[in-house]
Amino acid sequence: MCKHEAIGDFYRGCGHFHVRYFTGETLDCGSAACKTSASHKHKTANNCGCPEEDKEAFFSWLDEFFSKHLNIAIAPRTAGARHPEPSSESGGGGLSAPPPLKLTTKPTSWGQTTTTGNSDPNFITSYPPTTKGESAAADLAEFFKPTTRWDNPPWYHTASGIPPPLDGKPERYVSSWQSRGSIKTTRIGVLFSDMSVFWSAVTYSLTNPENQRDVKRQAWFLPRPKSLDQETLVEAHETYGDTIALFAESFLGTGQYCARGECWDLANEALKYFDQYDYIPKPVPSISRTHGHLIYEGKASKKGKEMVGRWRGGDDRIRRGDIIEWRTARITSVNAPGSFTILGDPEHTAVIISNSKVLPNVGDGFSIPPSALGSLTVVEQSVGQPPVRKDYNLLGLEEGEMWIYRPIGFEVYLGISDLTPTPPESLPRIQQI
Q: Compositional bias of type Polar residues: which residue ranges (predicted)?
């Protein structure tokens, strides 16, 4: 059946949606037995008997959607049922429908603009935040170069001891200090959302901290890690994936929230769950919207007509226990035309609990549209909604961005066992300023 875009009024009391007018935007179903389709087989008959039930079905789907999400009972529709027009007192303002529009249909051949093979080097998403250099850690290291002037009062002699470029305490930050007589050394370690790592040490005199000629600066950083091969990523899944999925599933049907009830808490707490097992390597923690090794990033626009995405790493599928991030995403239901879900205001987090289909001929950096991933089954929560199981068919992704992460061990991915204020003594990838 065809899809018709409509403008109307939603009545909170009864929960019905009253159509004021149809815009003329139509997605043709292509059925010869559908009276509103351009492919209708009875071109000249005035009353051929073919069904024209698509619009009424559309109204019923709207009723079902609002009933479910607003927790109100909506009476069944009857023929000829109408609702009073909104008054100016109720906010309707006495608006009348615009002039009739010429009914047109989009060509049945329209679809997503996608590419395959190696990805477009210009493809970027809005996360992680852009940097001036190779990574966030490299940018901070620039601040510690001898040629960079530090203003007084000295930031390293404050209670926080946080370098000004960080603009406050970052997501993952550790610090320490030691003093011998009048000489003090402060140290910090920072793990950024792009998975780069930074360390610094500042040694100065407590008797004259503003004398920067006597200040000794040291800085080290690890660039962003490279994408890993399939064997390593599958091993990471086998180590953490099922436990993370089971952790999320343990809340289903209980009516209980995970932690504060924020969507992000479900992933964060699942990763923290491993802290009680000293025989399991510590996983990379949730840092802002990052939850491990990036497996996939993609986005859609123009009501899904344009989709772009990039695969990362050597695995060939999304796996149970991976974690997904959405940003202002809109997904329409493939099986219930007219219904849709908004994920992210602006961000939303969920735990994937089933493997996706195998993606043939995929490799690190390959261009893969979101629609190629198929359906994802997740456990998610939000304030006002305890953890629930949901299915999202990415064929219906119309707008927004998405990222999928593979939980992975600290040492396997970054080469360090944990974040500390002091850099490791020997690490091939480490760079010093």
A: 109-123
